[in-house]
Amino acid sequence: MSELKTLYQDLILDHNKNPRNFKKLTNANRHAEGYNPLCGDQYTIYVQVENDIIREVGFEGSGCAISKASASVMSSLLKGKTIAEAEELITLFQKLVTGTADPMEEIDRVGKLAAFAGVSEFPARVKCASLAWHTLRAALEDKEQVVSTEV
Ligand code: ZN
User: Fold this and answer.
1) I need a surface site. Which of 14, 21, 54, 113 has the fewest CB within 10 A?
2) How far away, in angstroms, is 95 Cα from ligand 1 center?
3) How far is the CA of 40 from the centre of ligand 1 (A)?
């Protein structure tokens, strides 16, 4: 697990400092807004979908290092995935951050994403990590409402 912890710290630092796809997608045909009032994380996720394939993902907004790194890693993993594959990844990510999936068992399938399992030790940060993913799901389902981690 200590290797995973190092990977986690490196990943958060790297993606927070240099977030990937941190831009509004002008050609997006799906988007959704997400908000985590407990931490103040707020992002808009943009997706360009063509024939059921995710062509591009972008995001903008602001929040803590974990929420930003999570959105950044997510955006870099989704290109070329089908919507069904993306949905699968959303579900798996949720299991990793809540500690219900074993990251070492899933590492071949999810790669760097496994590092986010480290968040499961800090319940208050689980919402930070999963905000972008909830928002992505809403974008793929074409929901107009703002996604909030608090209902
Ligand atoms: Zn946060």
Assistant:
1) 14
2) 18
3) 6
Distance 148 CA to ligand 1 centre (A): 13
DSSP string, the chain: -HHHHHHHHHHHHHHHHS-TT-S--TT-SEEEEEEETTTTEEEEEEEEEETTEEEEEEEEEE--HHHHHHHHHHHHHHTT-BHHHHHHHHHHHHHHHTT-S-HHHHHHHHGGGGGGGGGGG-HHHHHHHHHHHHHHHHHHTT--SPEES--
Q: How far is the CA of 8 from the centre of ligand 1 (A)?
A: 16
For the question of whether the overall pTM of this predicted structure is more than 0.85, the answer is yes
Tens-digit pLDDT profile for residues 108-134:
888 888 899 989 988 889 999 999 999
Please tell us whether the domain made up of 3-148 is placed in CATH 3.90.1010.10. Answer: yes
